[in-house]
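Moderator note: this is an archived Q&A kept for reference. The question asked for a predicted structure of one protein chain; the sequence and the answer are reproduced below.
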Amino acid sequence: MTLEDIRNERIKKLTLLKKAGLVPYAPASQRTTTISDLLKDFDTKKDGRTVTVAGRVLAIRGHGGIIFCDVWDGTGKIQGYLHTEELSEEKMKLFNDTVDVGDFIDISGNPGTTKRGEKSIVVRDWIMLAKSLRTLPEKWVGLTDSEERLRRRYLDFISHPELKELFEKKAKFWDVTRTFLKDRGFLEVETPTLEITTGGAEARPFKTHHNDFDIDVFLRISVGELWQKRLMSAGIPRTFEIGRVYRNEGSSLEHLQEFTNMELYASYMSFEEGKELIKELYRAIAQEVFGTTKFETRGHTFDLSDEWEELDYVSTVENMTGVNIFESSEKELKDKLIELGVQFEGETRERLIDSLWKYCRKSISGPSFLVNHPKIVAPLSQEHPDDPRKTLTLQIIMAGSEMGRAHGELNNPLDQAQRFEEQGKLIERGDEEAMMPDFEFVEMMEYGMPPCFGFGFGERLFAFMVDKPVRETQIFPLMRPRREQ
């Protein structure tokens, strides 16, 4: 039978259910317990005990006077035992004629065990909760394609129950982060996701139109960096936010256009204190979520309990490529990238330096702190006290990738205005990832903003810890529409 034939047959069964006075799509279940709770408290000696469970039918065996069906509710699976000695002939026949694998049903009866000792429910009644019109894939036949698995996650979860454990870990990943920060006096806040200018990162934004104000706005590319800094100025000493950000860029094993990030800001916290906070947080996540601090991913091994090596940005690039980024011209930077076979977008000095560093980091297993970033690639960071060309910036490097970024936040309004002007020039030259100037933010800084430490990381860290592409660690990643048949 074709899929369309199966669907037509199941539609006919809807008519049979209606003729029997049953509703094919019930408004509610009558269940009295989850299957997992029933299995924990399974006792066939409890006189007169009747239970009702609800779930999806995963298998049907037998026919006629005896039927076995497996019912699964997401918490567990139990066998239903249907026999004409316990169930009316009418209900038995209706089950035979109308119930298919994939349907949602209630089954009511007494807990019991089969001759083989399998825990079951001796069914005395059943009702249809939702009649399925399509057949479930059998052992994933026809859904081996990774795109289809992601597109139809609702089937992916049924055939691969271990996925639930993955997303339970991801939820715990963020729960541990949230609890860790709240225990240290950070206030969780919510900041705008629609912005007039995007700030806090360098990325190509998504643009949309606000009809009421008749203005163009952008989806944020950071978790409210410039807004949280306003709260530092307002006298709220420690804040954090966990939320979605949007970057209109390419996709890869570790990049998506929509993802979850966390950012925190702490007034009066020194750069060195911030490093210790980061190490404590990452180790807490590792131990509480995964039970280990050692990970193998992308061909790298790293242990978060090790000492974290500190790498100087300029020296590291020079040692690996022979190029001093302060002394080299843009042409020399470009020629070196071509020589190394590195693909790069944009030919501004900032983009060329950043591309050169990304080439270098691929060989670093970490855990490491990359420090002393040039001012041109860190437009919101405090100037380094020992070298005005550098900033108080760090990146956490693990498995050849960036796993977080922190700054001693710039609080000099005159310096900030000048850096925004430089970013504006980059935009005029066609750099779509340069940071948009926000002079209302500079105005805030002129009222005074305390020194503070800022730090952020995203769900990429989780993806690396479970050694999966970040796309597979999102329940419903964005998919291209199916092509018209």
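Archived answer notes: The radius of gyration is 29 Å.
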